[in-house]
Amino acid sequence: MTKTAVVILNYNGKHFLEKFLPAVTRFSPEAFVVVADNCSTDNSLHFLENEHPSVTVIRNRQNGGFAKGYNDALKQIDAEYYMLLNSDVKVTEDWLGPLEQLLDSRADVAACQPKIRSFHEPHMLEYAGAGGGFIDSLAYPFCRGRIFDHLEEDRGQFNDTHPVFWATGAALFVRSEVFHELGGFDEDFFAHMEEIDLCWRIHLLGKKVYYQGSSEVYHVGGGTLHRSNPRKTFLNFRNSLRLLFLNSKLSALCWKLPLRCMLDLLAVLQFLGKGQHRDAKAVLLALGDFSKEWRVNVRKRKKRKANWRYEDPPIYKGSILFDFFVKRKKRFSELNV
């Protein structure tokens, strides 16, 4: 069995592979490097065959998005650890070492992530994962170094090793045994927040998720869908509701779900006030889609709950919405986490 497999999911990302794959192969000499292709039409496969013959290519039969794409590929890879790496990530020398050492030394840690800095602004932390992810009681995610759209400069404040709630899907280092025990990513998410859902299930399994600041990578971000894309708005709002419903205690759902839906309707009004009509429509579609799949999610929740070894995960007890927009707390250090 290989110790670590670096698995890059690709869909029409030839330009990213040309730019970033050489560093992955150069700085991951002992890892098994794999590109899992989601039915690309941009000549990616021809490029890999001719320029990187040492890289193993897995051809997925369909483009099932981030979740299914990785699930299908990882069933074919025998390794102790998986590093799930976005194609638009620049890695650094010895980036894998600290991540491997953390999981080697801590059997209770099932997943971790490196520091995520911005490729275009290297002094800044990056939106997708920054210094490790957290979530509040209504399933609004934020990061150490990123609250909503406010990003912090990297001044070394997160050069630590620290427990977090979720690790970013842009560079997710996870034990293969735990990944498969949990059934991998929830494919109904398609893309966005499926890694948060996986990490929530890791906590409910009694395991931990960590951030390892001794490793760092640089992320372009928005390679598939930019944050301003209404499709991303739809996926984020719908999948947040799924997160809350599938993983929360029933007693908490009685008040959390109605309040979250009310806040989402307020978000519709906010988008309309800004003239962002497509985003407003996307939120309404997300609420509608969540309602349509109610029975499916009820069955899924019951199935998941049978495997809970419940310990209260490290959910932020406050409201990140209130802290950010009312109390004007912009930096992670200002929060009571």
Can you put this structure into words, describing what you see?
By secondary structure, this protein is of the alpha/beta class. It has 2 domains: 2-219, Spore Coat Polysaccharide Biosynthesis Protein SpsA, Chain A; 230-310. It is built from 11 helices and 13 strands. It has helices at 14-27, 44-51, 65-74, 97-105, 176-181, 194-204, 230-247, 250-273, 277-292, 294-305, 320-326, and strands spanning 2-10, 32-37, 56-59, 79-86, 89-90, 109-118, 133-135, 141-143, 146-147, 150-151, 161-164, 171-175, 208-219. Strands 1, 2, 3, 4, 5, 6, 11, 12 and 13 form a 9-stranded mixed sheet that branches. A two-stranded antiparallel ribbon has the order 7-8. Strand 2, helix 2 and strand 3 form a beta-alpha-beta unit. Helix 7 runs antiparallel to helix 8 and helix 7 (230-247) runs parallel beside helix 9 (277-292). The chain is globular.
